Structure formats: structure tokens, C-alpha cells
Amino acid sequence: MDPARLLGLLRRRATRLGLRHEDAPGKGSHLKVRHGAGATVIPMHRGDMPAGTYRAILRQLGLTEADLEE
Q1: Is the pLDDT of residue 70 over 80?
Q2: CATH for 25
Q3: CA 2 from chain center: how many Å?
Q4: pLDDT average, residue stretch 14-21
Q5: 30 to each of 19, 66, 67, how far by Cα in Å?
Q6: pLDDT given at position 52
Q7: What angle do CA 50, 55, 12 make, to 5 degrees?
Q8: Considering only CA atoms, which of 57, 2, 53, 1 is closest in space to residue 34?
Q9: How far, in Å, CA of 56 to CA of 53, rounded?
Q10: Residue 26 covered by a domain
Q11: Crossing angle of helices 51-61/3-17, nearest 10°?
């Protein structure tokens, strides 16, 4: 999954469900994200992120892939 696409999906989900969503700069090309009750860091590199990184981000936010589907 592309990091920018993931961020867009998280923002849309927060708007749709009325959740708190905040982005803050992290170190280098990383972005600190608070989504609902969870928080994580998303690497904003080009291309798709590794599958394990994607799953770890979802786990840290307390989400599943089904939660991001529209």
C-alpha cells in the first residue's frame, strides 16, 4: 500500500466516523499519526510500503484491513 493512499483512507475513515485524526511531522520522511485512540508513525517514502510495515501500522491503530474499505 502506498503511504499517501493509506493516509487518505485514514482521514476519510476519521471524517466518516467522527474520530479524531491528527498528523504531525516526524523525523526525516516520517509522519506521526493519531487516529482515534491509536498512534503510530508512517514512513512517507515513495512506492508501496512492505506488507509487514502496513500490517504493523494497522495493528498499532487497532484497525483491520476491512476497517479501511469504503
Answers
A1: no
A2: 3.30.920
A3: 10
A4: 93
A5: 22, 25, 23
A6: 96
A7: 100
A8: 57
A9: 5
A10: yes
A11: 20
Residue range(s) defining the domain that contains residue 39? 3-62
Across all residues in the chain, what is the average pLDDT?
93
CB 61 within 8 A of CB 20: no
Q: Which three cell numbers mark 29?
A: 520522511
Count of domains for the chain: 1
pLDDT tops 80 at residue 36: yes
Q: Cell 508501496 maps to which residue? A: 48
Which is more confidently placed, 60 or 69?
60
Stretch 32-40: mean pLDDT: 93
Pairing of strands 30-35, 21-25: antiparallel
